[in-house]
Amino acid sequence: MRYTRLIALLAVPVLFASLGWAQEGESIYKSKCATCHGATAEGKIGPSLKTTKLSEDDIVLLLSKGNDARKMPHKKAMSSLTDDQIKAVAHYIKSLK
Question: Of 76, 73, 63, 71, whose CA–CA distance to 25 is shortest?
Fold first, then answer.
């Protein structure tokens, strides 16, 4: 019983942090990505992200390092975002499935 309470107490901050991260990721996505990928990631100029085969880690790498094989703006890193913001966006994109 005592361990159950401890686990519950530890889980609450993680849950709230995860919710905040998802909200931040959505906000950043809408301001930086939606123009090309659509408001709900359905695809526009850029491809749909709802069906991306990239893992969350792959998305983080793409946004933080860029990839010469990609079209702009993904040839270069998204230097206007912090590492935490990039992780939040990647988490949000993967939550859309």
Answer: 63
pLDDT in tens, 20-63: 555 899 999 999 999 999 999 999 999 999 999 999 999 999 99
Per-domain boundaries in the chain: 2-95
Tell me the H-state helices in 33-95. Answer: 34-37, 56-65, 83-95
pLDDT tens readout for residues 59-85:
999 999 999 998 888 889 999 999 999
CA-closest candidate to residue 18, choices 96, 97, 91: 91
CB-based contact 62:74 (threshold 8 Å): yes
Query: Rounded to an integer, what distance in angstroms lies between the CA atom of residue 76 and that of residue 88?
Result: 19
CA-CA distances (angstroms) from residue 51 to 75, 78, 97? Answer: 21, 22, 7
Domain 2-95, architecture per CATH: Orthogonal Bundle (1.10)
